[in-house]
Structure formats: structure tokens, C-alpha cells
Amino acid sequence: MSVQKINSPERPLAPMYSHAVKIPGLIFCSGQTPVDSTGNVVPGDVKAHTVQCLSNLTDVLKAAGSSWDKVVKVNIYLKSMGDYAAMNEEYIKFLPNPKPARTCIQAGGLPHDVDIEIEAIAAV
């Protein structure tokens, strides 16, 4: 089986993982936190952070030859489930219909103490 490691030129490189891994038919996108292209956490609340995570994933999906229309599963990790409604407001606006399958959990701790991380699995 062919395995292709993909890094988006729009996202900062991470020495410990690839932005995505592509196998025949599927793309597994690493979790994206609310960081800008220089790796700094963007200012704002969980709504702004949700949009940044989704925008980062857009860059990764594009680099892998896919798009949100082909996403089949999204996993969302929140620092606090108290942010669930606010996150959903932006998530619903950002993703095309019909929405992919999704899991959302509260995580004990996220990188750089951010309030959200989002990962996705997409078809090629």
C-alpha cells in the first residue's frame, strides 16, 4: 500500500508529525490547533479559535488534494465542554452540508494550553 506524508506549505512544520497522511482513498489530517502560519496562538475566544482550526485544516486538505466536501469524520477536542455551543456556532457556519460524522469530547489538556483542537478524515 502506498503511504504519502503531506505537509501544507501554509502551515508551520512540526518535527514530530506530518500534517496529513494519505493512503489509497483516504486522508488522515493531524489535529490542528488555533495557531497562525508562524505557529503563534491567535488571539480571541473559542469561536475565533474554532475558525482558525478549521481554516488550518482547509490548508491541509488542499495540500492533500481534498476539501471539506470530502470530509467523512471530524474529531473535536475541547478544553471545556462549556465551549460546546460557541464552537458549534462557528462549526455549523464553516462546514458545507451535509455535515460529516463527528465526535466532540473534553480533553484533559491540549498543546500550548489551547481551548480547542480539531482533526479530520477525508476521502481523496
UniProtKB/TrEMBL annotation:
Q: What molecular function does GO assign, one term?
A: deaminase activity
The top of its lineage is: Eukaryota, Fungi, Dikarya, Basidiomycota, Agaricomycotina
Q: Which family does it belong to?
A: Belongs to the RutC family.
Secretion signal span: none
NCBIfam families on file: Rid family detoxifying hydrolase (TIGR00004)
Pfam families for this protein: Ribonuc_L-PSP
Which GO CC annotations does the UniProt entry carry?
cytosol; mitochondrion
> What is the protein name given in its UniProt record?
Endoribonuclease L-PSP
Superkingdom: Eukaryota
Q: Where are the transmembrane segments?
A: none
